[in-house]
Amino acid sequence: xxxxxxxxxxxxxxxxxxxxxxxxxxxxxxxxxxxxxxxxxxxxxxxxxxxxxxxxxxxxxxxxxxxxxxxxxxxxxxxxxxxxxxxxxxxxxxxxxxxxxxxxxxxxxxxxxxxxxxxxxxxxxxxxxxxxxxxxxxxxxxxxxxxxxxxxxxxxxxxxxxxxxxxxxxxxxxxxxxxxxxxxxxxxxxxxxxxxxxxxxxxxxxxxxxxxxxxxxxxxxxxxxxxxxxxxxxxxxxxxxxxxxxxxxxxxxxxxxxxxxxxxxxxxxxxxxxxxxxxxxxxxxxxxxxxxxxxxxxxxxxxxxxxxxxxxxxxxxxxxxxxxxxxxxxxxx
Length: 333
Description:
The chain is an alpha/beta fold.
């Protein structure tokens, strides 16, 4: 906990940045962009890893230690990356994320991930991830590749997206995240836009969808979507890390979200190990929306109650958990 807030981190990856894991220059470009995020947004006074230490095959032990041993995080989502057309193992292999979750089943939740363009193979893997490995939700990525050429798919596509949403419902899963904004590697920026979330939310009102990275740079569009659909949420993953290096910019992002959709629809995420969780957590707990932004734009204050919801309570609710259950779970070895 930090202060009196339970911290439920919505994303950490078990990255394999070994050069031999990348399928050529597009994968290497993706890796280098993630390192650039690490180097650019880690604040002065915190450890910036040299490329050779960052771009390695991160172990389950390293991620577990960073999140639980070195930060005030209480619970975690172990998040795969299904970029199997850029990397041999998808960059964050789902099997290793399931292993990370199994280390602390009381503290770490496994989210599955598949490539919907694979049709029945994707549906079968979803079933395996839920029934054999306990996946509680799914995370999708809308840009796929073939020998470096992008093949996008949309969250409102009845032939590609809807079957995986229907399969999730069949499996009892009602929580789905999607990477939006933050174009990386050879991703065409238009395919990271959020226009397709309207159709997903409208056609599947019983599924809660989390727009990761609050869709940056498409924040205004995301805000208008969040207020129109009760089943849309936004994760601050890779956005909260502006909090020290660019606090004014972060205040405007968070202020807009609080103004338009309120404190119940915003979710914290660290993106470990791109960023060490602790410095952003400490900064967020002490953060305030500047008075001139409150007066000039009508942004609400960032209250202690709002911080508690954003840091953990909202994601607990989306998983069907409550605070008392999370507080009473013992730590596993």
